[in-house]
């Protein structure tokens, strides 16, 4: 137990100093220690101090993995933390006597917020909402809102703005001073990339053409040079200081093909009806 | 017995089949299983019934009783005589009380069936004797149902009679392997529920089991009537002695399960949750050991109450450590067993219970995994399908798969029973459906809100859809705030929060339709957005998502709508038409599938076809012979 305690404090230091090699080594050692005491998954018989320690180890592991931008490892840590957080959720229920486990050191909202942000940056909105649903339910039982928690509020607002299309808000949110903690800042680049692609996709459809200087502002790029580079990547045509978006293939040609396809389906459908009628009558 | 049976059939034979193929038919039904025999004799009995008068019917049943006597010769004679004597009296009463010949004939038919269907001789005759007794009682009970309003019918005796008459149905279900009888028994529970008392149940148990039976003591203990056997009044003790004890009759496992369900219901109605939890847990253990397909629908019901009990105990569901989580393991085990045994009823029930369980603690991903790994049985009962679709719709809505959610919820609302009892489900599924429709960008039909069953409960949702349809963002936020409690309670709050973007989209669409050109500033003002830039991005997104047909002009800051094309020039009407036809065809297929055909009917048809052929052949032969005769005669005539 004391062994584990020292391991945890060492781990803390290693992650603070960004010595990830050492941290990884420490992590595997402490996880082994947890396994020996059968505390990797909390059971009713696990001593409360050990539960708190195990949770700390896993949380530190999650933070270390996110700083090394290892999404898979982070997801694994998040899943492993779930039973611990379930305990915490249970203790947080109104009318529950406080359990012996110490939750003051828990970084639950931070880890959950990071996980939400990860899902958002990966575009996995189904899972995002699945996780969120649980949180909302829990918050409303306590009589609060999910948005009361800064770490949760951040991804939730981001998602809402993304879905709505207020990309300028997302852009502003990813600016440093709005981010709740530096770990959240790690996702900013990914998110900006995401919205830039979204905006580009929208612009192709919405504008016939756009001056390069305006495009710079729209796409949140730093210089016109960056705009030109970005335009080349997407295959846009640059002429006279304007961007011309590639028009879709000629409408007439498309409609002709449409008719061909359409008549095919019409014939197919009619034959289908005839066959069905035959079987019925 | 077998000799008797054969003679019985051979008597009937001339009725059903011509003598030529009679032997064949007989050997056929002899060689094939027990089930085959019932229809042939039933047909015989049917024909006999049409011919026989009331008196005949009585005579026939007397004949059967004679058989009873014979077969019990090797048993203890005196007691059997007593039983038969009492039966005789009851028979007489019955024929006097219910003078319709049809009921009599049908009873006759039933007893006939029993005679031939049940194979082990002693048990068979025993149960047939009992069957008749129960039949009488059942008819009495049905009469009682009719005269339910009359005060003189003692509810206790009536309840006892009801329960006992259900035993007959269960026995019949086992004998015929027909789940419909079991379902009938389960349906009767709701009407019986009010009359359940420990005394009623104890009396039934005492009369059904012998004192040493472990099932009886198990049931009685749960009722708190452990010493019911000693307490039984002397007179009934006598009856018990004479009736049951000498032959320790095996009670059917179905009867055990049925009584257990009644005990469960009683405990639940009395809010004796803790007791119910214990009782159900040990009951599940007992049931798992049995592997009988006729037990399936009863077992499913047992699991249902089992889970219901657990939902009521201490750490209540929203907490992740709730008591319900402890039954996931047994339920999953039950699901596995049910799948392996092809036990559709239990499988469907346990699936919905598990989904409910997971959703109650908002473990949505687990629920999703359960669905993805377990196909839901198609043959499940309607109510289970409705429940399953509701949960599925909810999960899909949370996962943003609105189209899928919509179709599931439509199914749930349509399959939901509209009776008073299931109103909660009806409302809940409609609420969810309305929200999902709004999320899909549709405005729900006004008629939905006008149904009397829904009107009050759906009022907040009506306001919501009005706000969305006029694209009034302020009003929308207002409604969400004022009714947030209701929405949270209904579990639709998170879904409703997602509606904000839909309100905006609707607004943009309306503006795009009404103006050929509008400045971004105006859009921003009208929608109550924060900035012009936001408005520009939002409109751009709407264009990309195909909500509107328009272009943006960044330099001058306006949105220019495109000419709206003729919808009838597109493929859309054709697709809609195709969709509808497909729905109609699917409906037709479903109804064909849902038709029920009597078992082994085709054999009868085959036989009658064979008969016809036989007759034809004979006719042909006769004609031939006749021709010959004619020729002969003609020849003779010629010769003269």
Automatic annotation (TrEMBL), chain A:
Gene3D superfamilies: 1.25.40.990
Pfam families: CSN8_PSD8_EIF3K
GO terms under biological process: proteasome-mediated ubiquitin-dependent protein catabolic process
Keywords: Proteasome
Gene Ontology, cellular component aspect: cytosol; nucleus; proteasome regulatory particle, lid subcomplex
Domain called PCI: residue spans: 79-261
Top-level lineage group: Eukaryota
Family statement: Belongs to the proteasome subunit S14 family.
Name by which UniProt lists this protein: 26S proteasome non-ATPase regulatory subunit Rpn12
Organism: Penicillium fimorum
TrEMBL record, chain B:
Comp. bias regions, Polar residues: 9-33, 72-84
Keywords: Proteasome
Region described as Disordered: 1-158, 609-640
An example Gene Ontology molecular-function term: enzyme regulator activity
Any one GO biological process: ubiquitin-dependent protein catabolic process
Biased composition (Acidic residues): 141-153, 625-640
Gene Ontology CC: proteasome regulatory particle, lid subcomplex
Domain of life: Eukaryota
Residues passing through the membrane, by range: none
Keyword tRNA processing assigned: no
Annotated Basic and acidic residues bias: 128-140, 609-624
Domain (PCI): residue spans on this chain: 386-566
Protein family: Belongs to the proteasome subunit S3 family.
Protein known as: PCI domain-containing protein
């Amino acid at each position: 137990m004391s062994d584990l305690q020292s391991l945890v404090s060492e781990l803390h230091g290693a992650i603070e100093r960004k010595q990830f090699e050492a941290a990884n080594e420490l992590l595997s050692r402490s996880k082994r220690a947890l396994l020996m005491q059968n505390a990797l998954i909390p059971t009713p018989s696990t001593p409360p101090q050990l539960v708190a320690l195990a949770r700390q180890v896993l949380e530190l592991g999650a933070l270390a993995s996110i700083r090394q931008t290892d999404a898979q490892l982070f997801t694994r840590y998040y899943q492993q933390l779930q039973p611990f957080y379930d305990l915490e959720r249970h203790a947080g229920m109104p009318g529950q006597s406080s359990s012996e486990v110490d939750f003051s050191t828990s970084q639950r909202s931070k880890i959950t917020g990071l996980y939400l942000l990860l899902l958002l940056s990966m575009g996995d909105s189904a899972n995002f909402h699945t996780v969120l649903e649980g949180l909302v339910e829990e918050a409303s039982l306590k009589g609060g809102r999910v948005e009361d928690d800064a770490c949760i509020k951040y991804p939730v607002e981001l998602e809402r703005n993304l879905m709505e299309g207020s990309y300028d808000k997302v852009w502003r949110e990813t600016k440093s001073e709005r981010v709740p903690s530096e770990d959240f800042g790690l996702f900013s680049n990914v998110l900006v990339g995401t919205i830039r692609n979204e905006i580009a996709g929208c612009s192709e459809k919405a504008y016939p053409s756009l001056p390069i200087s305006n495009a710079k502002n729209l796409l949140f790029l730093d210089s016109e040079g960056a705009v030109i580079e970005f335009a080349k990547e997407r295959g846009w045509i640059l002429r006279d200081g304007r961007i011309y978006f590639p028009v879709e293939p000629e409408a007439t040609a498309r409609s002709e093909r449409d008719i061909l396809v359409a008549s095919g389906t019409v014939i197919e459908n009619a034959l289908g009806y005839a066959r069905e009628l035959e079987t019925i009558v | 017995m077998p000799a008797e049976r054969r003679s019985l059939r051979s008597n009937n034979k001339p009725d059903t089949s011509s003598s030529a193929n009679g032997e064949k038919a007989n050997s056929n039904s002899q060689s094939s299983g027990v089930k085959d025999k019932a229809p042939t004799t039933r047909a015989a009995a049917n024909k006999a019934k049409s011919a026989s008068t009331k008196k005949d019917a009585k005579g026939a049943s007397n004949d059967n009783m004679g058989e009873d006597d014979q077969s019990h010769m090797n048993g203890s004679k005196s007691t059997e005589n007593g039983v038969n004597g009492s039966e005789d009296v009851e028979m007489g009463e019955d024929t006097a009380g219910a003078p319709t010949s049809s009921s009599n004939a049908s009873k006759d038919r039933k007893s006939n069936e029993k005679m031939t269907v049940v194979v082990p001789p002693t048990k068979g005759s025993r149960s047939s004797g009992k069957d008749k007794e129960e039949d009488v009682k059942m008819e009495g009970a049905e009469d009682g149902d009719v005269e339910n309003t009359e005060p003189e019918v003692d509810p206790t005796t009536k309840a006892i009679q009801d329960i006992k008459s259900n035993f007959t149905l269960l026995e019949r279900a086992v004998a015929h392997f027909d789940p419909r009888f079991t379902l009938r028994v389960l349906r009767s529970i709701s009407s019986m529920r009010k009359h359940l008392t420990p005394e009623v149940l104890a009396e039934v148990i005492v009369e059904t089991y012998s004192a040493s039976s472990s099932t009886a003591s198990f049931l009685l203990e749960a009722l708190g009537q452990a010493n019911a056997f000693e307490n039984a009044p002397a007179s009934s003790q006598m009856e018990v002695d004479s009736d049951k004890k000498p032959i320790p009759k095996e009670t059917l496992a179905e009867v055990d399960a049925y009584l257990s369900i009644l005990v469960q219901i009683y405990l639940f109605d009395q809010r004796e949750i803790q007791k119910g939890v214990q009782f159900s847990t040990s009951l599940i253990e007992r049931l798992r050991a049995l592997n009988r397909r006729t037990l399936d629908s009863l077992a499913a019901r047992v699991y249902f109450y089992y889970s219901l009990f657990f939902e009521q105990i201490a750490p209540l569901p929203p907490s992740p450590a709730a008591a319900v989580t402890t039954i996931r393991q047994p339920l999953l085990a039950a699901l596995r067993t049910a799948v392996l045994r092809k036990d559709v009823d239990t499988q469907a029930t346990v699936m919905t219970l598990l989904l409910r369980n997971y959703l109650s603690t908002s473990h949505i991903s687990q629920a999703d995994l359960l669905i993805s790994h377990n196909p839901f049985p198609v043959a499940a009962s309607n109510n289970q399908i409705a429940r399953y679709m509701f949960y599925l719709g909810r999960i899909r809505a949370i996962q943003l798969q609105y189209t899928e959610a919509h179709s599931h919820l439509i199914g749930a609302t349509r399959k939901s029973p509209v009776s008073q009892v299931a109103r909660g489900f009806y409302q809940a599924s409609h609420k969810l459906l309305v929200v999902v429709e709004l999320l899909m960008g549709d405005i729900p039909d006004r008629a939905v809100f006008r149904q009397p069953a829904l009107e009050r409960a759906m009022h907040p949702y009506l306001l919501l859809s009005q706000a969305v349809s006029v694209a009034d963002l302020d009003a929308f936020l207002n409604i969400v705030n004022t009714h947030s409690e209701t929405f949270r309670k209904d579990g639709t709050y998170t879904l409703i929060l997602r509606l904000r973007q839909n309100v905006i989209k609707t607004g943009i669409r309306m503006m795009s339709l009404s103006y050929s050109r509008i400045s971004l500033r105006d859009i921003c003002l009208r929608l109550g957005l924060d900035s012009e830039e936001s408005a520009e991005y939002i409109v751009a997104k709407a264009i990309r998502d195909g909500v509107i047909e328009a272009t943006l002009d960044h330099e001058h800051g306006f949105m220019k709508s495109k000419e709206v094309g003729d919808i009838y020039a597109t493929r859309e009407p054709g697709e809609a038409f195709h969709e509808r036809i497909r729905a109609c065809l699917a409906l037709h297929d479903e109804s064909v599938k849902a038709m029920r055909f009597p078992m082994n009917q085709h054999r009868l048809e085959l036989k009658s076809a064979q008969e016809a052929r036989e007759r034809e052949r004979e006719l042909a032969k006769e004609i031939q012979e006749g021709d010959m005769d004619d020729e002969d005669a003609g020849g003779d005539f010629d010769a003269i």
